[in-house]
Here is the input.
Amino acid sequence: MGGGQLGRMFVHAAQATGYFTAVLDPDPDSPAGRISHHHLHADYLDSDALGRLSRLADAVTTEFENVPAQALATLAGDVPVAPAADAVAIAQDRIREKAHFVRCSAASGIGCAPYAVIENADHLAAVSADLLPGILKTARMGYDGKGQQGVQTLAELAAAWEATGRVPCVLEKRLPLALECSVIVARGHDGQAVHFPPQRNLHRGGILAVTEVHEQALPPAVAARAVEAARAIADGIGYVGVLCVEFFMLEDGSLVANEMAPRPHNSGHYTMDACDVSQFDLQVRTLAGLPLVAPRQHSPAIMLNLLGDLWFAEGSDQQRDPAWAQVLAVPGTHLHLYGKTEARRGRKMGHLNITGADIASVRAAAAQAAALLGLPDSTAS
Ligand code: ADP
Ligand code: MG
Here is the structure.
């Protein structure tokens, strides 16, 4: 379900193992639909299309968080679906997601940022000024920083909520972040789970820009706590599939859960070139009920996200290709493009994984590639 780049990379992994694939996505030009054996372009809730999909498929997964949970529930009447509609419904809704983090906090050892739910004017009136300065986030459909507004005062909060059209929101206290990281867990039907090493993530303008994964990227104690928490969060809903949990490490060294994605995640793309199994391979295995093996990272890695901005020279609206030949001349670079024909600023077009024998050479190659692409050199030190 869903035909974006995550679906495309899942389809690649499934096809590499000999599976046939079918993609349901309304866009006739979707990145995954274009390479799948079957492409049903229909609305996610179209009952004919769901019926056809359940006849074509032996199992169904999702690559897109905002596939209506109802569509997954309908499919589950006919065919195994992983992750389950309930788990996706929690991840789709920040209110339910935070409640899940709170519910798991005894088992996970960590909580989330202080927050208030705002669903009506009474909730708004009851908000404590302790949550300011804060970030108002719409409960649903937010991604890449969309649906979020910084607010300093209660008056700004009221105006910001008004501007959302009074949809359900959470107000979160703005926390002093030292760094951001995430953990990808794959959990099978039998409750067995494996995880990738935690990733350190750098965002620019609310969008993931750089992921680094090597032993210097995160304090080891923080990495261990994040893994334990992510596994508890997956266990807490009997999750089946690949789950990514994002964390903040605060300036005082404490860790809080930020959000979770019921699917492979942009911060896990390095696994395609730096690990013996990728996050997409594990998604295939969880869906097919195949054994989950603990992934082994065989190379330190840095991933640079390639947004549509790179397709435009400064101050120009003329689309051109970035200097791929020069970038690929740098040893250890692996280019992944998603087959999107039109570049738009802020649109995820691809990513560049950089691997090497040691961290210093990976850092040097990443800096070189970033310079060739016109990206700031921003690898964490
Ligand atoms: P999205 O769905 O857009 O990824 P997030 O809730 O992850 O939404 O927020 C995007 C980014 O905004 C985070 O990765 C982080 O950099 C910043 N951010 C979000 N919430 C907070 C917070 N409570 N305090 C400080 N920074 C935050
Ligand atoms: Mg996020």
